[in-house]
Every structure is written in structure tokens, then in C-alpha cells.
# Entry
Amino acid sequence: MAKHKLHYDRSSWAGLVSVILLAFCPMATLAQVVGDGSLGTQVNGSAIAPCTGTCVITNGTTRGSNLFHSFRQFSLPNGDFAGFITTPAIQNVIVRVTGVGQPFISTINGTIATSNPANFFLLNPNGILFGPGAALNIGGSFLATTANRMQFADSTEFRTDVPAPLLTISVPLGLQFGTTSGTIQARDARLAAGQTDAFRDFALVGGDVTLDAAAIQTPGRQIALGGVDKNGTVGLQLTDDRLSLSIAADTPHRDVTLMNGSFINTFASTGGGGITITGRNLLVSDSIVATGVIPGTDNATTNQAGDIILDATAALQLLAGSIIGSGVAPRAIGQGGNIYITAATVQAIDGSAITASTQGNGRAGNVQVTANMITLDGTIPSGQASSGISSLVGNTANGDGGNVIIQADLLTITNGAVVSASTFGNGNAGNVQIHAQTIAVDGTTPGGEAPSGIVSQVGPIASGHGGAVTVAAHLLTITNGATVSASTFGNGNAGNVQVTADTIAVDGAAPDERFISTIASQVRGNGIGNGGDVTVKTGSLTITNGATVSASTFANGNAGTVKVIANTVAVDGTSASGNLGSGISSRVNRTATGRGGDVIVETDLLAVTNGAGVAASTFGNGNGGNVRVAANTITLDGSTPDGRSTSGIGSIVGGTGSGRGGNVTIATDSLTVTNGAGVSSSAFGNGSAGNLDITARTLRLDFGGITAVAISGDGANITLNVRDLLLMRHASEISTSAGLAGAGGNGGNITINAPRGFLVAAPNENNDITANAFNGSGGNVTIAAAGVYWFTPRSRAELAQRLGTNDPAQLDPRRLPTNDITAISQGNPNLSGTVAINILNLDPSRGLVTLPVNLTDPSQQISQSCTPGSNTSASSFVATGRGGIPLNPDEPLESRAVVTTKWVPLPEERGDAGSGRVGERTSGAVKTAREARRQLSKSQTRLREADKRSVAKIPPPIVEFQDWIVGENGVVELVANVSSSNSARFWSDSVACPSSQKH
# Structure
């Protein structure tokens, strides 16, 4: 609140206001007090004579503790005085104005006083205006209204339109408006109870109620402003000098406006004062509405500031840096009040704020806002204060913050506005809870100093824990550098962040990329504390153009865990500059000391594309977190346009990191890694890389990689459990390496378990499986599969021979075009690892069910013989030739039914993956079926010619074939009837079976 200037000095406007009053109130020069001759009211001893200056009002009608007065006109020019003579027994002075029309508006620019403390009620349906000279010295509560009658507990009414009303001793219970509803205005009025004035509670209830450069102060008491339309009713509750109003929701409302530096407050060392404003539209512009506890000799921890209640049936608008605030002031002792806001729409712009705070010794209040639509936008012109809804523990405070609770259909937070719960002192921050159909958080302050956001924060000098941020929505968008986050910069843990929505889109960064769009938990600055957890539950999550969902530590504390549970997750691309990749991540930064949190993703579909990533990393003094992904389908594809960053899932120990990398565990039905993307574990610092463990039904790599790299430590292990197929295409790799900088470190191990599946690569596509080390021992490669195709294990010597070099730095199987498996020490021939490939023999009968011997009646299916003289034929089924059948059971099925190309035996010296299947061995090539293939080589020319003729020939109408014949050139033809002698039959007819009946 200190950042917002309070405008008390309006004296320079006094002349202008006077001119305006004269121009629009032509009877202002005749303002006076005039009795109407009823109820015994006398003014300076006269029942009807006008009075100006000092007016002493006597007599009236007394009923019990009520004193009734009636005036034709009741106005006090500047400096005038109206003194009501009362006895100590009078508790309520009730005044009416019976004149009708604009000339009879009450202009109060002087002093209203009572000789003994009493509550004062002024009823004037024409309207009421308080000017800069208005003063109250009544000792009790004050109510000014444009209602035309007051209702009492015994059902009687005191009316302005009945000359001789029935008067009562009962307590007032309510107000009733007639066919008109006059306005109430306070222009440059200063009503300060306990200072220049003496009154208790203060209420204005009229048609439109306007405070223009006005100030109303009632320490520890109540202020009520109500806009009520014609025929409306208002409930009153009066206990001694305590006054409160109730306006039903179905009552027709009018507008209430506070503008031009208006300031209403109930500050007191004892607390207790509340403010209620009710109307159709509530406009607060460049003004303040505040309750709170201030320092004083009577401070006590039990002191409670009053609540602020704003109720608008239409719109609440907060403009030009306005504040709705409840707080505990510095050095004060007590508890802050709560703020309750209900409206159809709520708008806070240009640095306007709704805030509950504590700067002293006590807890801040809660803030609760309920609306169909809430708009928070921008800052004050200097950019030093943002629009928003907040709970704050200030830097001089010793107490906890309150909670912020928002319910809306639509919530938009833009241009640096915030919803926040923060602590900058000695106390815990409150929680932020938001429930909305649609939430849009966008951008930063105009100068880019801070992002728009929903945040919980522990400030730099604070000692306390951050509150939780809970967001539930149908649709949540976070764009252009905005944030939903919990952070700690001080001595305390950050809060947790939980976001639940049907659809979540996190996109982009600020134009200067100082801030990225994010859902995050952070330990920053000089913070000493742990980061909170980030949990995202959604149907659809998209993270694009450099945005992130993350948990990180930049200081002394552990990062939180990131958990994403979704139907679909799409992480794509980078920021406009290409420097910031989209991602789901946990990070220990280079200045940090602490462990990284885990990254957990559970989804049906995960797509990570165009340089985006899912990663846990450490660049500081601490171990990286683990990455665990469970999904039905995972697609990792591509890189940034400049190729600097590839898409992937990984664990990283950066060059400045001294901790261990986390493990990466993936469980999926289908994992596809393409176009440079990868699953990786890397250690570029002094720590070791984490292990990779993937379980999948199918795993496809197409120019993709599964890699583990350790610069100076031991290589990580890679374990792949594949049920059906591991396919590698186009320079894909599965590798673990150690000591790439020439340092020590033993290679990791690669284990591929596919007992019922296959490991397959296309020939000569440079797909490699390597477990190498630079100077340390090579790792081990163990493969167990039903089949391994087109790979060749290579020893270090063979690799050196084929590459034509023994330079350790050049002994890289990726430099060969073949598909290779290696486990070597590049620098030491004696430290190579092993390659063990086990082809598992499957029992083809396992799992089969014994079938019945007789499925059908054979006599009805196959004719076993022909009786002489019968017209039936014998039937049979014969498979001949080898078209479409592999040369041996170990080879794949060919796509052509008949071989039409010449078999080309591969040279012996090649011995590469193209030669066929890898058997149970550790090195060397596997022999092919070349000899069997050569047996068909002589028939290739004839078959090609036969193919050409059969393609060119126009086929006859399709009929069921009965036989086939073999031509002179060896062509086989299927025929419906056989007449030539070159028929090649593979059955025998009974002598009595006619050929026309063959089947």
C-alpha cells in the first residue's frame, strides 16, 4: 500500500467545487433549515421560519427513546450549525424532509450536532449532498438515506409523504424506497470520527451513491454504502449505537462510486471496523477502501480488524491504482480482516489491487472473490505496483499471510497483473486457490520487469514457508512469459503447485525472453529451503515455443518433483531466438547446492518434438533427479532448426555439475525416436551419468538414439526390454560411452532383452550398438532375442582394420557404413568388453491346444476313391516349388511369390550385417544361404521371360482352375479343362472317374 499515493489534500479544488455546486444547485444560496409545522419541531423557537447560521432545534415528538423531527427543507450552508436538543434518554434522532423536488435536496456543508450522544437518521427522498464543510458531532451512529419511510419492529412506518405519521417507541428495522430514489453525494467532504467529528457507525443508503474526493473515517466502527433503486427495501439492525445494513439480492440496486482520491477506512488500534458496499455497479477509481489494525496503547493479539464486503449485482471496477485492502500496520498487534467480493464481473486495472496484508504482529486476513468474469490487468504508470488480488506478509511483519480464494467462470491476468500469496517477513505465506472455467495468464509488465502470474512466494529476507498454489479449470492458458509458480528467495520452503484442467496450454516467452511461460516451483536468489512439488493433471497438455513445466533450485535447497498426469502431452519447439527449449524438467543450477527433483510423466500419448525435452539435470553441487515416463505411445522427433538441440527424454550432469545424474525409466507400448531425437543420459561434469531403462512392446529408432555419455566417469548402463520388435534405421545408435575427454572411466553395459521379439536393422544403414570406453574397460553388450538381423559384432582389431587407423579417437563404428556391435576400450586393446548374443530357441508347440481328431465328416469333404462307373473324381492338395517360401526357416519371408531376379552372392570379405542373421557368437560374420541360392541361378532368365509374357497377356475371364500344364519353355499355366498331353498332374484318376468332374 505504500506504493500508492493517498490524495488527502483537495483544497485547491474547493473553489471549483463551489462553482459546480452553484451551477447545478440553483437553490444552494437559499440553503436553510425550515420546519414544516408538524411533529412539534421548532427551529430557533419557530415552527416554520427559515434559519441560517446557528439553528437550535427543539421539541419534536418523543416516543420512548426515539425523537422525531420534520422539516420542509434541511440544508446547512458552509459554516452553519444545526444543534438538536436531546435528553440522555434519547437514543435515536429521526429526521425527515417533506419538501418535494430538487430545491429540497439536503446540502450539508455545515455541522449537525446533538446535545447528548444519539444515533441520527436523516431521510430525504429528494437527495443529499455533503460538501467540504460537512461535520458530524452526534456521538452516535449516522445514517443518511433517500428512502421515503422507515419501518419499525411493530410494523409502523415513519414516512416523508404523510403529514401526521403514526409514531412508535419501537426500534427501527428497515428502510423502504418509494417511486423515486434520490442520489447521495459527498464532494470533498471530510468526515473523520474521533478527530474533527464525533460519530460512530456511518451509512449512506440512496439511489446512486457517489464519493468524489471525499474521506470518511470511523475508527473501529462500521461504514456502509448502499445503492438502492425505487421500491427497494433495506434491512436495519440497530443495537445501542451499532448499526448494520442488509440489502437482499432481489432488491433493485443502483450504483456506488468512489473517485478522485476518495478514502474510506476504519483503522483502529482495537480493530473491529468493517466496510460494506452494496450496489449494482461499484466503481472505485483512484480511491481506497481499507480496514485494519494500527499501532496504539490498546493493541492486543485478540484485536481483529473488520471485514470488507463488496457486493455488486453487475460490475466491480477498480481503476487508476485503487486499493481494496485490509491489514495490520507496522508495529501494530492484531489480526487482519477478511475481504469478500461478489459480483457479476470484477475488473482491476492500472495497478489497482485487492489485498489482505500484515506488516505488524498478527495474521493477515483472507481474500475471497466470486464472479462470473474477473479481469486483472497492468500496473500503475511507474510500473512499481501491479494490478491483482493478493495476500501479503510484509517485511516488518511477524505473522502468517491469509489465503486467496477465487471462483469464476473466466479469469484473465494480463500485462503484469498477479494473483499472489507472499511472505517477505517472519511468517508463512497463505495459499492461493482458484476455481474457474477458463483461466488466461498472459505477458509481463509493460517494461518487462515482472511476469503476469498466479504465484506463491517467500521473499529474499523472509523467514517462512510459501503457500500452496491450487488451480482448477476447464481451460488454462499461460502465454508470453506468464507464470503459475511457487518460489522461495528466503529462509523457507516454497509451496507446492497443483494444476488440474481439462486442457492446459503453456506457450512462449516474453519478447526479450527474460521470462518464459511456465508452471514452476523454484528455489532462487539466496534462498535456503526446498522447492515445492509441481503436479499437473489434465486431459491435454501442450508446452510450446520455449515454455516449461519445471522444478528447479538456484540456491541452497532441493528442487521439487514434477509430476504430469494427462491423456495427451505435446512438448514442442523453442523460443523465438532458439535459446530456450520447451520442456518438462527438474534442474539443479550452477549456483545451487541441492538435489534435483524427479520428473514423472504418465500419459496415453507423449510427443516431444523440434528440440523440446523431458529432462532432469544438475549443473551445480547436487545430484540430478530421475525421469520416469509411462505412456502408451511415445514419439520423440527432430531438433531445433539450427540443430543445436535435439528432442528427447534425458538426464544431464552439466559441465559445472558435481553430482550424479538421475536415472531415466520409460515404460511404453510404442516408442519411436526419429530425426535426431533421442533418449539420453549424459555426464559432462565430475559426476556419473544415470542409467537408462526402457520397457516397450515396439521400439523404433530412425536416425534416433538411445545414448549414455560420461566425459570422465564410468559409463551408464542401458537396459532395453522389448516384447516384439527393436528396429533401427538410418544411422541410429544405442550406445554407452565413458571417458570421451581422454580421461578414465569404464564403459557401461547394454542389455537388450527380447526373448520373444526381434532386433532388426536394414543393411548398410550405419546403425550401431556400442558400449565403449576411451581409456577404461569397455562395457558389455548382452542381447537375448528370438532373432537378430543385419548386425555384425566387431572386435577392436577388426574395427581398426576396417577404419584403417589405430588412433583411439578415430575408433568409432559410426564411421563405418555397416551396422555394428562393439564393446571396446578405444585406448587399450587389452580392456575390451564382451558382446554376447543369445538367440533363444522357441518351442513352436508351446501354448498350442490339442485339436479334435475329426473336425468334420471326412466323407462329406474329400472323396477317397472313385467307384468304377461313378461320375466322381478323387481330390488332393499338393504344395510344390519354393515360391514365396524362405530358403530355410531362419530367413524372412520374401515379398514375391516367384523369384524373378538373379541371386547375387555377397563377397566373403564383406562379412557385414548385410549377410544375414547373427547367431550365438561374439564376433565375425554369420554364413549365409548362398549355396542354396545358387541352385536356382540357372532358372532366373526363364523366369524373367515368363514374367514379361504373363504381364503383357490379357487374362481370360476368371473361372475356377481344374488343372495346370507346363509349356515347352517351362511356363506353368492353370487351366479349366485339360486336353493336351503336357498336363502336369499331381494326382491320379480312378479309371472310372471322368476328367470333366475333377476337383
In short: The helical segments are 14-24, 796-803, 930-934, 940-952. DSSP finds four helices and 63 strands in the chain. Residues 691-839 form one domain.
